[in-house]
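**Reference record**
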Amino acid sequence: MPRAKKNKIPGDQAWAQAFAAVDHAPLVDTLGVEVEHDLLKLALTHRSFANEHGFLPNNERLEFLGDAVLGLSVATKLFELHPSRPESDISKMRSSIVSRYGLADVAREIDLGAHVLLGKGEESTGGRAKESILADTMEAIFGAIYRQYGFDPARDVILRLFERKINTATATGRHHDWKTTLQERLAELKAEAAVYNATSVGPEHNQTFTVHVFSGETELGMGTGPNKKLAEQQAARQAMMFLHDNAAAVAVID
């Protein structure tokens, strides 16, 4: 006797259930603005989820808007903060802040990965930790806020979330050797040299590395990446942000 086919949940119903399965209140609280239910759901919907459920709408159009709002917001702030710096410097600063890596950093700080709606394939391969997915979803969130409230409120959210990155931006950008810079800074502080502890998850062909960097027993930063080298550089970069306030850094390490 043929086995009865299981009734497949309609795409819209599956979408609503997946969105309701996660408490998004902590995310909204962190953003500091209420985002309309359907707009937030759309902003959190990765194309992998949309395609697996009958090609639902996804967040790529909101991402397009958010990218523009983010770039203008950060560029304007850097223009105001650095009135004597040439265009080439502030352009590099902006690029490092609004890069995929910068966006993913902020997304991790607000635990955005826990809220993204992913397809089974991306879920099983660590999609919630992938920098590209985190960065794109972060931009989609900014696009959603812009759509609901306009430019000024969206800009205010962006500048608050990126405040530390904006204030510590340098013209050296992503390719700066942060590990060397960190070792030099620790030597200036007469602190113990940096030690990096790495772990990895995922299949060998698609691993995600997590690195914690310490000076003595003090953890200074954490980074993730598709290989150990990039994760160490990101951890060192976070450590330099931590050490930016010299007086506080000496007190903590001592």
User: Anything to note?
Assistant: The chain is about 60% helix and 10% strand. The CA atoms of residues 174 and 195 lie 21 Å apart. The chain has two domains: 11-168, 178-246.
